[in-house]
């Protein structure tokens, strides 16, 4: 099952670092009405660490454009806490994405190559932009850590999409 652009983003609850329940499609920032949800592989992935740190550099630009954000993985709380030493982020991050939740998001799921990598199945990268209606405006799902949207292009693209003068619809809606 793969989610499609224009569909309602599913209600998925995970935990934040304080152990609070967080709904991935819930808006936390006061002046935001869109949300960027970034699914990353976990602490074992150096490319994910790099990507999250790059995203942090664009946090203000996203907020100024009305886009809140969160990152999530299937890691445990302990794994996320350990990962924080390598992260320089300024946005919410969550843990505990379950196999069923990964499947409901249509993500590719991998088994660890060894215990050295990690101790659980994990989602390959996924990125979802949810608009003010709770609908998936932008979706990007990869089956490996090497293919992800360039953050600067993503941010400038969202600025363009959100500009009312451009009247830009959700793309990829043709159903055959």
UniProtKB/TrEMBL annotation:
Entries under PROSITE patterns matching the protein: THIOREDOXIN_2
Domain Thioredoxin: 3-163
InterPro entries: AhpC/TSA, Thioredoxin-like_sf, Thioredoxin_domain
Pfam families from the UniProt entry: AhpC-TSA (PF00578)
CDD domains to which the protein is assigned, alphabetical: PRX_like2
Keywords assigned: Oxidoreductase, Peroxidase
GO molecular function terms listed in the Swiss-Prot or TrEMBL record: peroxidase activity
SUPFAM superfamilies xref list: Thioredoxin-like (SSF52833)
Protein name according to UniProt: Thioredoxin peroxidase
